[in-house]
Write a structure and sequence with these properties.
This protein is α+β, with helices and mostly antiparallel strands. Helix content is 25%, strand content 44%. It contains 4 helices and 14 strands. The chain has a 6-stranded antiparallel sheet. Strands 6, 7, 8, 9, 10 and 11 form a 6-stranded antiparallel sheet that branches. The chain has a two-stranded antiparallel ribbon with strand order 4-14. Strand 7 and strand 8 form a beta hairpin. The longest helix is centred in the first third of the chain and has 42 residues. It is elongated and about 60 Å long.
């Protein structure tokens, strides 16, 4: 066998082994993703679809050594505390024992849910988002004057606060701080803090902003056992 023939055989063997490794990895990865989806579905009790991605290279083969790597799980229509939301969880360094190196999560609450939760305090106003701020629009007062309120969102580890900053009535804008303190509208536009309760151990609220598709709450996840959804991230 000449040198060229030997090189071709070696190349063919290498390509075949690479293909087998890739195929094995994909099979194991698919099965692992199915197990992650099943576990997430039980914990989150999602009524919509649940999807999992193993984002670390050769994640399937890593599971044979007890490692899963980085995982992203998304779930739709999760019900917590009378609120429906979509959740995405990103965990790093997940093991087959259920530990992780920590990560982050987001919960998106649709504006129909936000409007409903405002209830009577919103005086029939509807919620939308613009450049990260919450925007409330509707009619107010005995004359039903059109009003638009823009509010800033801030967060602590277990609550977020809606702080109205500007109000526009009949096309005229004014800072809320400049409204007469005795005015009824001024009293209605005081900051409102919403507690975020029932968070799993190791999960803390980090941010709140108004996106195009809803109110988005951001969370940090501490290293250790993956959180059990005994409680939910709901306002």
């Amino acid at each position: 066998m000449n040198r060229r023939t030997g090189t071709r055989i070696l190349l063919a063997v290498t390509v075949t082994l690479a293909a087998l490794t890739c195929a094995t990895d994909l099979v194991v990865e698919h099965r692992t993703e199915e197990r992650v989806v099943a576990q997430a579905s039980r914990r989150l009790k999602a009524e919509g679809p649940v999807h999992a991605d193993l984002t670390t290279p050769l994640a399937g083969l890593r599971t044979l050594g007890g490692e899963v790597g980085d995982v992203e799980v998304s779930a739709k229509d999760i019900h917590r505390q009378h609120t429906t939301m979509d959740v995405t969880v990103r965990l790093k360094g997940v093991t087959t024992d259920g530990d992780s190196a920590g990560g982050s999560a987001t919960a998106t609450v649709g504006y129909d849910q936000v409007t409903r939760r405002l209830g009577s305090s919103g005086d029939g106003m509807t919620a939308t988002g613009q450049n990260g701020d919450l925007v409330l629009s509707g009619n107010t007062g005995a004359l039903g004057l059109p009003v638009t309120v823009r509010a800033r969102l801030t967060a602590t580890s277990d609550s977020f606060t809606i702080t109205p900053t500007t109000v526009t009535v009949l096309g005229r804008g004014m800072a809320v701080a400049d409204l007469p303190s005795a005015a009824g509208l001024h009293r209605e536009l005081q900051p409102r803090t919403v507690p975020v309760t029932g968070l799993p151990h190791g999960v803390a609220l980090t941010s709140a902003h108004a996106a195009d598709n809803g109110l988005v709450l951001g969370f940090s996840i501490a290293p250790g056992p993956t959180p059990s959804a005994g409680g939910g991230a709901a306002a």
